[in-house]
Amino acid sequence: MIPSKKATTWYEQRLIHIMDLIWADVERDVLPLFSNKIPTAVRDAKLSPEKIVQLLTTAIKTLDIIINKYSSSELTNQYQRIAQGAISIASAEADKDFKEAMQNAIGIDVEPLYKNVDFTIIKNGKPVTVGLEGAIKANTDLIKTIPKTYLGPMRDMLQDGVYQAYTTEELAANILQEYDLLIKPKYKATSKAYIARRIARDQMAKVYSQTTRQRQEDSGVEYFKWQTSDDERVSGNPSGAYKKAKVSCYNISRDNQIKKGKGVYSVKDGATWDGESNLFPGSAHIQCRCVMIPLIDGVNYDSATGKYKKPKMPKGTT
Q1: What is the pTM of this model?
Q2: What is the C-alpha separation between 263 and 4, in angstroms, rounded?
Q3: Which of 82, 98, 132 is closest to 209 using CA atoms?
Q4: Is residue 21 located within the same domain as residue 159?
Q5: Which pairs count as long-range contacts for 277-280, CB under 8 Å and 24+ apart, including other chains?
Q6: How far does CA 60 lie from the centroid of its chain?
Q7: Which string of DSSP letters, residue by residue, matches 2-13?
Q8: Residues 315, 189: one domain?
Q9: N or C: which end of the chain has fewer CB within 10 A?
Q10: pLDDT band at 52 (very low <50, low <70, confident <90, very high)
Q11: Is 270 helix (H, G, I), strand (E, B) or coil?
Q12: What's the structural domain count of the chain?
């Protein structure tokens, strides 16, 4: 089972659309201050410090208006619908995958056992258990941070310009460099695709993981195996890209913390690592790609030895 790609893509597309709308306002209200619409004589001239500060201040105020517009309560309902749609798709995908896995493993339809899912969000730095409405609100609030995240670098650059005696031509070049060349890797931290992907992948992996955990509890499954994506991006992989990550999924998936087998943990309590407890695949850290594999004694797991037996997949599947 893998986290819902369908939900991630759906969510990502809508977040990108929000940023497209934001950028349209920037093109209409901000860029003309530094574009060829300014008479050549003015654009090429060395403006006085006072004029430069005035120009920058106008641009900053205009950016703030745009940021506030797309972060305002007036758009809350629209953002709530997006958050609810994404969560519903990811949760439904997790339900479907778990139902099929249990049907194949023990031949029983577990869907009648399903209960409401309790989601976990981070509030004031601590995990808090909430219902569906709480998860929707958390994602709605996250969407509201996008305008500032997206336009923040431009605003910072303009604010720096107040102290840098930029000419209007230099400012125009800086803005266009920052936002017209986003496809270059050096600008990925402020690109629409990167911002949308980071939020969508992280949040949908969490929803998928927490729904799967709930379904395991509903079905009476006591233990799960922590399965990583087994590549260089796994946190804590000593030969990978994130070898110094605080939460090491690489080691958690190999540890025998509760003496039930390597990478085996209680569905109720999860794993512990470096002082953190109640860790679960998909939500152990930002953009965690790990998944929970339900363990059923005598089917894919031997509780006496702690051995996990990977099920044979039908032909034509991976």
Answers
A1: 0.78
A2: 23
A3: 98
A4: yes
A5: 278/127, 279/247, 279/252, 280/209, 280/210, 280/213
A6: 28
A7: ---HHHHHHHHH
A8: no
A9: C
A10: low
A11: strand
A12: 2
